[in-house]
Amino acid sequence: MTDPWWISLIKAFLIINLLLLLFAYMTWVERKVLARMQLRYGPNRVGPFGLLQPIADLIKLIRKESFFPASAVDVLYIAAPVFSSFTALAAFSVIPFGPGWHIWKWNVSGEVANLPIALVVIFALSSLGIYGFIVGGWASDSKYALLGSMRTCAQMVSYEVSLTFAVLGVVLMGQSLSLVDIVQKQASTFWFFGPQFVGLVVFFVAGVAETNRPPFDLPEADTELVAGYHTEYSGMRFGLFQMGEYVNMITLSALAVTLFFGGWYGPWAPLGPLWFLLKLFVILFLFLWLRATLPRLRYDQLMRVGWKVLLPAATINAVVTAALVVAL
Amino acid sequence: MAGNILVWIVWVVAALACLGSGIAVITFSNPFYSALSLIGNLASLAVLYLLLSAEFVAAAQVLVYAGAVMVMFLFVIAYLGGRADAPWAGGPSWQALGAVAASAALLVEVIVVIGLKSSGRLSHSARVDFFYGRPYEIGRLFLTDHLLAFEITSIVLLIAAVGGVILGSHSRETQ
C-alpha cells in the first residue's frame, strides 16, 4: 500500500506549493474579509478585486533590503525563520486529504506519509516550531523581540497542553493515532464533533492561541511590543515568519477537519479533497472572523483561560470519554 | 543493498551529531547555546531511535524532551540572561570527582557491552515485525509486563506536579 518514493516526492512537491498558494491567498482573503467587516474595501488596486496583491507583496518582500541589528547573533538570527517555516510545512505531510486513487498501475494514497503515529508527529513538529520564535527573538538582541519571544514561549507551552489533551477523546474514540484510521472510523460511525464537542471547542480555542492569532496575539501585541519576536526582521525573513504562522493556522484547521469533521468525507457525493477544502475554508474563515470581532486578551486572562478553564475541561472530557469508551 | 548503505550513512551522521552536540553542551560558555546544543543532541538521538524502528519513541522523545522540556530551559535562560562562566574553570572538587566516577562507570558499561557483543553472548536480537514499536504494542506492554514501573513513574510525576504547585503557591504567599 505504500507508494514508491518518487510518488511521495511528487505529492510532497504539490502539497508544499498548494500550501504556499493557500498561504498567499489567505493574506488576501484575510484583508478582504476584515475590510468588509469594517465597512472598507480592502485591497482592490492590484489586479481585479486586488487578486494580484499577494504577488505584489511577495515581490516587495523579496526586493526589500534585509538589514538587521549589528548586535544580532548572525547564524541563529537567520536560521530561526527558516526553521519555523520548515516545521510548519513539514507538519502538513501527515494530513490525509483524500481517500487515495488508483492512477494507471500505481495506488496513490491521499496523504504524503501515512504514519501510525501521525498525530504525535504533528504535535512534535509544532512543539519544535516554537524554537524558531524563541531563538529569533533572542538572537535579535532587542528588548521588544525578547519580550515577544518570552510571551510566545509561555503562551504556546501553556496552550500546547490543552491542545494535546483535547484530542485525547478523539484518539480514544478512533482507537488510533493514525489520522487515516481516525477518518475511516468517522466514516463508518459518525463524525466526532458531536460526541467530542467539548474537545472540539477546547481544540479550537487552544489552536487559535497556539497559532498566535487574535484574540490571543499577545506575542506580537503591536500596541505594546511593536511586533513581538519579529520586530527586528524585515524583507523575506519576516515573510518566512509570517508564512510559518499562516501555514500553522492552515495545518491546525486541517487537523480539526480530520479529527472532528470526517476529513475528506462529505454528507453526500464522494468529492474527496473538495469536501476537505470546503471544510478547511469554513474553519479558516472562523479564524478571520475571530480577528475581526474580539479584542485582545490581557496577559492574566490568557493564563487563566489556558490553565483554569481549557485544561480542566479537556481533562474531564478525556476521562469521561475513556470511561464511556470502556463502558459502551 | 543501497538501502543498507543509506542506513549506515544516516547512522554515522546522527551518531556524530549526537557526540558533537553532546560535547558542545558542556563546552559552550553561553548557556543559551548549551541548551540549543542539547536540543540538537535530543533530536539526533531521535534519529537513532528511528533507525531502530522505534518511531513512537522517536516522536515522543522529540515531543516531550526536545519540545516541552527544553522550551522551559530556554525560557529560563533567555529570561534570566546568559551568565557566561568559563566552562573548564571547574566547580567544587566533589563535582569533579562525581563527574569522573560517572564517566568511568559509563566507560566500563560500554566496554562490557562491546565485549559481550564480540564474544557472541549478546546474540538474541529483538524480533522486528509489523507491530514492533507501534503505539498499540507499546501500550500493551505498559499495561501488562511493565505495569508496576509504569504506575510508579506516574506516581513520581504526580508528586513532582504537586511539589511544583506547593513551591509556586508558597512563593506567592510570602510576597
How would you describe what is shown here?
The complex is a heterodimer of chains A (328) and B (175). In chain A, helix 2 crosses helix 10 and helix 5 packs antiparallel against helix 8. Chain A has one domain. Chain A has a two-stranded antiparallel ribbon with strand order 1-2. The model of chain A has no long low-confidence stretch (mean pLDDT 84). Chain A is mainly α and 328 residues long. Chain A has twelve helices and two strands; from the N terminus they run αααββααααααααα. Chain A has helices at 5-37, 53-63, 74-91, 118-139, 143-166, 168-174, 179-188, 197-210, 222-225, 235-260, 273-293, 299-327; strands at residues 101-103, 106-108. In chain A, strand 1 (101-103) and strand 2 (106-108) form a beta hairpin. With 175 residues, chain B is mainly alpha-helical. Chain B has two domains: 2-84 and 132-174, NADH-ubiquinone/plastoquinone oxidoreductase chain 6, subunit NuoJ (Four Helix Bundle (Hemerythrin (Met), subunit A), Up-down Bundle), CATH 1.20.120.1200; 95-122. Chain B contains six helices and no strands. Chain B has helices spanning 2-27, 31-51, 55-80, 93-118, 135-143, 147-174. Classes of the chains: A mainly alpha (328), B mainly alpha (175). The interface between A and B is medium-sized, with 25 and 20 residues.
Principal-axes shape call of chain A:
globular
Q: How far from one another are the termini of chain B? A: 66 Å
Q: Give me the CATH fold name of the largest domain in chain B.
A: Four Helix Bundle (Hemerythrin (Met), subunit A)
Sheet-strand content of chain A, in percent, reads under 5%
Give a brief rundown of this model:
The complex is a heterodimer of chains A (328) and B (175). Chain A has 12 helices and 2 strands. By secondary structure, chain A is mostly helical.
